[in-house]
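Need tokens for this chain, all 316 residues.
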Amino acid sequence: MNQTTLPPAIFLMGPTASGKTDLAAYLYKNLPVELISVDSALVYQEMNIGTAKPNAALIAEAPHALIDIISPTEVYSAAQFRNDALRLMADITSRGKIPLLVGGTMLYFKALENGFSQLPEADAEVRHMIEEEASKVGWPAMHAKLALVDPESAARLQPNDVQRIERALEVYRITGQSMTSLHQATSGDTLPYRLLKLALVPSDRKVLHERIAVRFDHMLADGFVNEVKALVKKYPALTSDSTSMRCVGYRQALEYLAGAYQESEFRDRGIFATRQLAKRQLTWLRGMEDLQQVDCLSAEMHQDVFTIVSAFIKGQ
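Here are the structure tokens for all 316 residues:
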């Protein structure tokens, strides 16, 4: 089957605070598209403020699939996302609509487009050895060891990102190959769609940073800290190492509530972590092929994207 006979699908990608949600809602109202969220934070129920989850009014106007599908104590993988997204895309296409996948979790987009590599199952013995080693030298030192065998993974992780460092080291010690190389050796399952890949990229990084700070302050004013307090009360097993609590801002909120630092430092750390996330997202985007970029700071962004998507739908 050649590209011209495949059904269309759209990726709408961009860093945090680039305006993806409002743009997706605009396209939903004006074009025959249905929305699928591509966001590893929005899958969690009861995590609304700190994830900048679309509010009930917006969701009512422009429904998003794959939002609020698991509890904060559960784990959702890129492989699960791919399976869910393919099922939803097939359903949308069967009804004569076009799937528009919107979000900022670049690993999910990559897994969907290229298939997902077969990483080894967790090995308790190997993990125990890694944890024993880390108890002696510390996780920053383990991060440095990861950089020697898998520099690409190490560059995406912070020295305190314990679970991801542990997993990357575990994969290497089980297989003798880096997680990066295994991810690149994908299953070869091609995505059966004619694909438009759009990226919202800021023409001025400083303006995006300002947006991030303003949005974080709004989260604080809207009760982000109280949201985290309620989560911990309802789910006592949650810690800063829980998958859901690794979402940007949540780990810092937990540390603040534990007395690790004052409110002003919590704010600064939360904003810094969010800016680092945006930096990683933009790095992912720079490595993607066949990407059409649109300035997310432009006053004409909605109209520019509408024009591009309309032409794509018409096959032009």
